[in-house]
C-alpha cells in the first residue's frame, strides 16, 4: 500500500501528464485550424508582406512553447496561459506584425502547418519562384541564421537587391550555429557579419528561448548586433521573444515609421466588463463583511453596556448626556478603521490592479478568475455552513450579500469562457 509520499508523487506525475497532454491538444488543434496559402504570387496587391526565411532544420526550435519547458513543469505550480502556448515563430510573427503579414515556405513533409507565419508548400521546381515573388514585394525580410543549403541562394538574392534597410537577421539556437552561418555565408554580405559577443551574466539569465539576438543593417550594409533579453527575470516570461524584438530593433521600427505593436482591433466584449464588475464585488466582499460585522458588534456592545448600566443604577431611562457606549470603554469603529488603513488600502489596491488587468485582457488574471469562480464560492459556502452556529446574527445580516456574490463569481466564470472573450484575449497577446 502506497504511503503519503507515493501518493503525492503519483498526483504530481498525473498532473504533469494532464498539462502536457492538454498543451499538445491545444497546439495540435491550432495547427488544424491554420490556413495554407495557395501561392505567394496571389497575395493581395495592397497588403504589406513580411517574408520569413529560415532553414527547415530550425522548424522544431521555432515550434517551442514556454508551457512545456521542463523547469516550469517541475518547479512551478502555475497553469499555462494562452501566452505560454505561443511558439517562438508565432512570437516572431507577432513582433513583426506592424510591418505586415508574415509568410513563408513550408516543408513539404509537414503533416500540419507550423504555428506562426502563413505557409505555402511549393515543389522543388517552383520554390525559388515563390520566394522571388514574395521578396520583390515584401516590406521586410526576416532571415533566421541557419545551416540550410537553400539559404546560400536566398542570401545571394537579398544582397543582389542592395536594400539592406529591409533585412533583419535572427540569431537562433546557439553560438555554434551562428559561427557556421557566419563562416559559410558571412562573405556574401558587403561588410561581413559581426562576431558573437561575449555573454554577460544578464544575457545568461534573461536570454531569449530560441532567438538569442538580431542583426539589422544601415543603408551601407553596416551590421548592428542587438542581444535579446528581458528587462526582468519574470516579467513577460512567456512572451519574451515577442517583447524583446521590438525593444531591441526600435531603430528599425522607427526608421520604417511603424509602431512597436499592432493595436488590437477586436472590441472589448461586454462579458469582460460585467465579469470585472462581478469579480471586483466578490473580492471587496470581505471588506464589506468586516465593516458590517464591526457595526453589528458595536450595536450589541452598546446594547449590553446600556442594559447593564441601567440595571445597576436602577434607572428606567437615561438622557443622551448620561448614555454610556462602547467608545467610553476605549473602542471606536472609526478609530479602528483609521488605524488599520494600510491593510484595507492595500486590499483595495490589489483588487483594483487585478480588475485593471482583467479589463485590459491579461491572460493570467483571466485564467485565475475562471478557476476562482469555481473554487472560492464553494470554499466560502462550506466555511459559512460550518461557522453558522456561532455567527447566526452576522450570517442573517450578510446572507443577501453573500448570495449575490456566490451567484456572481460562477456567472463571471461562464462569461469569461465565452468564445468572443477568448478571441479578444488572444488578440491582445
Compact description:
The protein is of the alpha/beta class and 429 residues long. The chain has 16 helices and eight strands.
The N- and C-terminal alpha carbons lie at a distance of 47 Å
User: What number of structural domains do the residues give?
Assistant: 2
**What count of helical segments does DSSP give?**
16
Query: Main sheet: which strands, in order across?
Result: 1-4-3-2-5-6-7-8
Order of helical and strand elements: HEEHHHEEHEHEHHEEHHHHHHHH
How many E-type strands? 8
Which residues sit in consecutive blocks of at least 5 with pLDDT less than 50?
none
What's the helix and strand layout?
Blueprint: H1 4-33, E1 36-37, E2 49-53, H2 59-62, H3 70-75, H4 88-95, E3 101-105, E4 118-120, H5 127-137, E5 140-145, H6 150-160, E6 167-172, H7 175-185, H8 201-205, E7 211-217, E8 223-227, H9 240-248, H10 250-256, H11 270-313, H12 333-339, H13 341-359, H14 363-387, H15 392-416, H16 419-427
Parallel strand pairs: 1-4, 2-3, 2-5, 3-4, 5-6
Antiparallel strand pairs: 6-7, 7-8
Amino acid at each position: 500500500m502506497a504511503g503519503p509520499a507515493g501518493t503525492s508523487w503519483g498526483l504530481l506525475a498525473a498532473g504533469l501528464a494532464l498539462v502536457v497532454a492538454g498543451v499538445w491538444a491545444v497546439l495540435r488543434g491550432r495547427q488544424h485550424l491554420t490556413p495554407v496559402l495557395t501561392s505567394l504570387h496571389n497575395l493581395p496587391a495592397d497588403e504589406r508582406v513580411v517574408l520569413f526565411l529560415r532553414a527547415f532544420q530550425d522548424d522544431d526550435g521555432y515550434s517551442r512553447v514556454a508551457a512545456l519547458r521542463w523547469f516550469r513543469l517541475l518547479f512551478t505550480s502555475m497553469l499555462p496561459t494562452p501566452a505560454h502556448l505561443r511558439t517562438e515563430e508565432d512570437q516572431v510573427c507577432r513582433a513583426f506584425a506592424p510591418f505586415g503579414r508574415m509568410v513563408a515556405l513550408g516543408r513539404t513533409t509537414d503533416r500540419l502547418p507550423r504555428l506562426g507565419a502563413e505557409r505555402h508548400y511549393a515543389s522543388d521546381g517552383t520554390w525559388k519562384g515563390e520566394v522571388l515573388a514574395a521578396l520583390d514585394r515584401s516590406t521586410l525580410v526576416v532571415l533566421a541564421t541557419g545551416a540550410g543549403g537553400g539559404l546560400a541562394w536566398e542570401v545571394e538574392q537579398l544582397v543582389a537587391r542592395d536594400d539592406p534597410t529591409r533585412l533583419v537577421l535572427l540569431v537562433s539556437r546557439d553560438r555554434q550555429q551562428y559561427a557556421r552561418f557566419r563562416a559559410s555565408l558571412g562573405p556574401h554580405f558587403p561588410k561581413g557579419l559581426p562576431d558573437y559577443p561575449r555573454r554577460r551574466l544578464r544575457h545568461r539569465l534573461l536570454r531569449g528561448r530560441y532567438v538569442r539576438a538580431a542583426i539589422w543593417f544601415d543603408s551601407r550594409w553596416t551590421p548592428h548586433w542587438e542581444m535579446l533579453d528581458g528587462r526582468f527575470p519574470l516579467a513577460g516570461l512567456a512572451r519574451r521573444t515577442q517583447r524583446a524584438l521590438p525593444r531591441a530593433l526600435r531603430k528599425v521600427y522607427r526608421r520604417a515609421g511603424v509602431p512597436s505593436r499592432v493595436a488590437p482591433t477586436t472590441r472589448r466584449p461586454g462579458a469582460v466588463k460585467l465579469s470585472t464588475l462581478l469579480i471586483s464585488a466578490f473580492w471587496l466582499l470581505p471588506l464589506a463583511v468586516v465593516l458590517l460585522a464591526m457595526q453589528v458588534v458595536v450595536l450589541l456592545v452598546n446594547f449590553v453596556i446600556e442594559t447593564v448600566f441601567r440595571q445597576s443604577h436602577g434607572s428606567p431611562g437615561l438622557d443622551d448626556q448620561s448614555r454610556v457606549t462602547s467608545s467610553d470603554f476605549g473602542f471606536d469603529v472609526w478609530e479602528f478603521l483609521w488605524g488599520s488603513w494600510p491593510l484595507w488600502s492595500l486590499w483595495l489596491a490589489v483588487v483594483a490592479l487585478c480588475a485593471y488587468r482583467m479589463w485590459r485582457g491579461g491572460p493570467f488574471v483571466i485564467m485565475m478568475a475562471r478557476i476562482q469562480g469555481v473554487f472560492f464560492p464553494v470554499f466560502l459556502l462550506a466555511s459559512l455552513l460550518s461557522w453558522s452556529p456561532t455567527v447566526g446574527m452576522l450570517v442573517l445580516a450578510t446572507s443577501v450579500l453573500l448570495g449575490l456574490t456566490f451567484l456572481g463569481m460562477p456567472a463571471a466564470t461562464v462569461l469569461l469562457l465565452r468564445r468572443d472573450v477568448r478571441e479578444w484575449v488572444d488578440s491582445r497577446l
